[in-house]
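Explain this fold:

***
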Amino acid sequence: MAVVLFAMGGYGTYLGFRIKLSDDPEEKAKAKDLHPKLLAGMFFFFALGATGGITALLTSDKPIFESPHAVTGIIGLALLTIQSILPTLFEGNPALRNAHGLLGSGIMTLFLIHAAFGLQLGLSF
């Protein structure tokens, strides 16, 4: 999952900043095309990972929502859901673009913490 976070999430975040900061219309157009696709893919793989993690815990008779890794994962997926809804509201409220960028940066920070908890959890077995 760390590969998904760093490759898809990292590059998707970079593209989001290019959309906001670039003066080149061609670069912006390419970033606007790829940014939502990459981050939708990241969401998909994270949701699959969560399903696999919950299944692994259930089959090993371990509590599901007691680890910080599980809690940060649930919060992260909930925030990604909100994040994916925001662009549909951009036209009615341009200030939401800034909220989208700030929330996205916060989500990536949360998932870095989530990765650290996952590594700690994996090393505990």
Observations:
- Residues 89 and 95 are 10 Å apart (CA to CA).
- The mean pLDDT is 93.
- The chain has four helices and no strands.
- The longest helix spans residues 25-59.
